[in-house]
Predict the structure of Piwi-domain-containing protein.
Amino acid sequence: MKKETFQIMKRPGIENEPIKVQTNFFEVTKLPKMKITHYDVTISPEVPPRLNRKVFACFSEENKNALGGVKPVYDGKANMFTHKKLPFESKIFEVELEKGSAPMTKTRPPQGFKIVIRKARDIDMEDLFQFLNAKGNMTNNCKMAINAMNIIIRHEISAKYPTLRNPFYTPQGATSLREGMEAWQGYYQSARPTMGKMMINIDLSATTFYEGGPLIQMVAKILGLRSPNDLRRGLSDMERQKVEKGIKNLRINDNHRPENKRKFKIEKLTQTSASDTMLDVDNSNKINVETYFQNKYRRLLYPFLPCIIARKNIHLPIEICDVIPEQRYMRKLDRDLSDKMTNFARQNPTIRANRIQTGLNILNYQNNEYLKQFGIEVSNNMAVVNARILPTPTIQYHQSSRESCVRPNCGSWNLRDKKVINGAILSSWSVLAFLSYKDLPDQAIKLFVRELITTCQDTGMNISERDPPICRANPIGDTKESLQKAWLKARDKAWGAKPQLILCILPNTGLYLYAEIKRISDTVIGIATQCIQSKHTNKPVKQYCANVCLKMNIKLGGENSFLIPEHIQFLVDEPTILMGASVTHPLSGNNEGPSYAALCSSVNVKASCYAASIRVQSHTDILTDLANMVKESLKTFYQACGLKPKKILFYRNGVSKSQFMYVLESELAAIKYACQSLEADYRPTITFVVIQKRHHTRFFPIEKKNADKSGNCLPGTVVDMDITHPFEFDFCK
């Protein structure tokens, strides 16, 4: 396929009167003028980054003279940077760690290491200055300079606190969750090139750690007990299995010999208590663990509990073990833990801004000897930047509505006195409750359905079947069979007419049941489903029913509303199709599951209705069958409104900066190929827009009039200068 040409948009002129907002960017007020030297580092034997840092710190401290007084910075893997050249081009160093510096595993970690350092390149900072001032492109020198800055600002803090990729985490303000776990506050920091200057972006992060301290306390928490004293009754087999699952692979140290603590990793628990677990001692004599410890060290307080089994079949009583602090909880969080973490991480703007400032104090750039060495200075004040508030769009409802045109207030509005543009007809449907009659009686369901139907009628839908059949299902039973029975009940009630919808009432917010309902209804049975939580059926609320009504109307082929032409002029001028695309990969660790590519596109000139296309593909960030997906969308648009789009506005989600050009070249070519496969001379204008969500940029309104009731910036606030790309067209909102 011929390589396609395209043009990267430059930033257009801004005409609106700007407002001012604070942002979590801190200006780099002084940048190094000298060249930065990059070295490749190889540490052998190979160990995790955190141990690498210990090895490197030891090497750096022991070899000050050999390094010519330079304090190098290191990324924990293979890259080292210095503010001036070292006295050598390449050299090998030997490093010996103190005994006990590394955690015990199945195999004893090494104490001796070899470090090979080789000069890689000199980084000329002039390229970065040219780029920041829109006088040059992003060269390899620029990329390396920015990478070096990131390692410089992270080097010192990474040696003090546990680091996960970019963020570092501190125990300050940690919140206990459950079963020996706690939520830690973290801080993300990143060097960002902006218009005319470098900035440091600092944001909050949060993750889960195991609580440090006596292992016996963690065991009690895992079992939901008030204190270790409640363990004196011993453990049932089920409790032992629960504890073993909760502490497996934890790193611990023993405490019965304070002068010689050893580190271990938990492999499993013994099936017998310490008093019944036998050890082989001298001359093949056997003795139980309780007696062994009583004779050699001290009497055990919990001999009725099982022992820890660590490397080389070492048996340790639980009470002599301490959980080593700063261990991250690596398993997938269940719903309860996930909700607790969300509540912990969610902050109102004022608290978030204060905590970001706390993070800046912990980072302490002003007294960082590594920054000083490289000649870098960072402001202590959040940047104040220019922003704009876009005009609030007007939403059009049906002309017969008492209030047919609505201008949202702070991004919200209600459906009172409003009718949808095109109300769907619902004549064959059923209700499927995944609860028992005791938990949710038929009468309560009928009351909710009656309110829902009334609301649907008021908003312009036509519900001809006002008494849908009610079915029951076990939430952990055969979901497919339950949905098929509900489908048959709806068909029978409608005298053989094909069912249109199943209203599913769920007992909770569990994701598994919801996902199964959607999978089976969409791919096996072929019927629309509308899921609601049972708590909303007890006392039907008009606004909630209205929101459900809008979802049902769209699923049944109706049209809810659209923006008035004055606010979507680019759509009105010429027929324009909007497309949004993304690729979803399986969760980390799942190498067998496929990836899914999805494309959603408008089917009318008002962009008020959409159709979807989906593909299963291999693990790649490129939409491999995009050409056919786009072709389907263009055909659907033409069949729906009889027009060929003259413009394609293509939104692409989930692309990292390093993949921008690769994705753009590949997928833009696929879109053009789709157009020309329909007609050889069909060449609509294509605008390709990349969307990034996890950008860590936060805005804080300065004036009260520019804030909503929660203290956030008003909807429609856009920042497209000051902290954006030096010259390309990007913006934050």
Observations:
- The mean pLDDT is 91.
- The first strand starts at residue 19 and ends at 23.
